[in-house]
Amino acid sequence: MPVRHAFDVDPDDHCETPAEAYDDIVKTLDFIASESGRSKGGLRIYDPYFCDGAVVRNLASRGFHSVHNVNEDFYQVTREGNIPEYDVLVTNPPYSGDHLERLLLFCRDSTKPWLLLMPNYVYIKPFFETTVGEKRPFYIVPATRYEYIVPQGVRRDHTVNTAPFMSFWYAGMPPAMATKFFQWWREADLESAAGLPKPLLAGKQSEIPHNMRAQYDSSRRRLRKKQREAADRRKRKRGEEAVTERLRKRAQETCRYGSDCTRTGCWFSHPEKA
Q1: Phi, psi for residue 188 in degrees, rounded to 5
Q2: How confident is the model at residue 29 (pLDDT cuts 50, 70, 90)?
Q3: Cα(195)–Cα(149) distance, integer angstroms
Q4: Strands 138-141 and 167-172
Q5: Is 193 in contact with 27 (CB distance < 8 Å)?
Q6: Which CATH number fits domain 11-221: 2.60.40, 3.90.700, 3.30.200, 3.40.50?
Q7: Among residues 141, 151, 142, which one has the least CA distance to residue 16?
Q8: Is the terminal CB of the chain with fewer CB neighbours within 10 Å at N or C?
Q9: Contact 198, 143 (CB under 8 A)
C-alpha cells in the first residue's frame, strides 16, 4: 500500500535514493563519526524528508543504525523547535517548489555537517549563491549516473527506476572539520564500499568533472563531434556495465513486497512466485 504522508507531496518528488549513492558516502560518514566521537552505529543521522522508509534500511545495511527519518513535516518540526539531536544531515530532498532553497538555508545556519543529494543544475541557480553565502559547499561526484527508485503506487505509469538528472552530493562541514576531511580523503583508500569506481571529491565548482557539470554552466567544456561520439560510446558502455551489475545484485535480493508486488519490471527476486 502507498504511504499516507503527514504533509503535502508532489508524486514527482518521491524517488528513493539508490544504494550506490550511499556506498559513495560511507567512508565520509565514517570520518564524521570519528570526528564526532561516535561509533559507526551510533552516528546520529538526520534525513528530514520521508519517502518510503528505505533510507533507514539502506543506512542500517551499511552499519549506521541511528537514523531519524520519519513521516513528519520537516518545516512544521522546524517551526516548533523540535528538530532531533543529530550529528550529520543526509538527504535526497524534493526538487519541486522552494524545498531546495529552504533546505540550503537550514544547512547554512546549522553548525552540523550535511550531505545533500541534488541535481547538477542546482549550483548554477540564482538562489544557490544567495542561500549558501560564504559557506561554499564541496562536492562528492559519482563515477556513474545515479538511478532513483520510485516507490510502489506513487506514479500511475508504474515506473520502477528513473534518472532524469545528473546528480551528486553537495556537502558542507565546519571549516576545521572540512580541512581535516580533505587531508584525510587524499590519504585514504577511497574505493567504493561496493567495489565500484570511487567517487571524486571536488573542492569547488571548477573541479567538478565536465561531463557532470550543469548543461548551462558556461565553464563546461564543449567537445568536438568525434570527441562527443567517443564519449557517448564510453558512457553507454559504462552505463550498460553499471546496469548489469545493479541487476545482478538486485536479482539476489528478495523484493520487500513479496508476492504482493505489482511493479512492472521489478528487478528484485520473488521466490513466492517461483
Answers
A1: -80, 160
A2: very high
A3: 21
A4: antiparallel
A5: yes
A6: 3.40.50
A7: 151
A8: C
A9: yes
Decide if 43 contacts 174 (C-beta within 8 A).
no
The phi, psi pair for 78, rounded to 5°, reads -65, -45
- Residue 129 pLDDT exceeds 80: yes
Q: Do residues 91 and 67 touch, judged by C-beta distance below 8 A?
A: no
SS3 for 115?
Answer: strand
Place of cell 506514479: 155
d(CA 270, CA 256): 9
Sheet of 167-172: strand order equals: 66-68, 44-46, 88-91, 114-119, 167-172, 138-141, 200-202
- Provide the mean pLDDT of the chain: 82
Q: Domain-by-domain residue ranges, the chain?
A: 11-221, 222-274
pLDDT at 97 over 80: yes
Task: Detail the DSSP E strand segments found in the chain.
Answer: 44-46, 66-68, 88-91, 114-119, 138-141, 148-149, 161-162, 167-172, 200-202
Average pLDDT of the residues in 17-36: 93
Model confidence over 212-263: pLDDT tens digits?
A: 888 878 776 665 677 667 878 888 888 788 878 877 776 777 777 777 777 6
- Give every CB contact of residue 133 below 8 A, 6+ residues apart in sequence: 108
Catalogue the long-range contacts made by 70-76 (C-beta closer than 8 Å, 24 or more residues apart). 71/3, 71/5, 71/6, 72/6, 72/7, 73/6, 73/7, 74/7, 74/48, 74/49, 75/7, 75/102, 76/7
Residue 108 corresponds to which cell in the numbers above?
547554512
Q: Tell me the pLDDT tens digit for each residue of 51-74.
A: 777 889 999 999 999 999 998 989
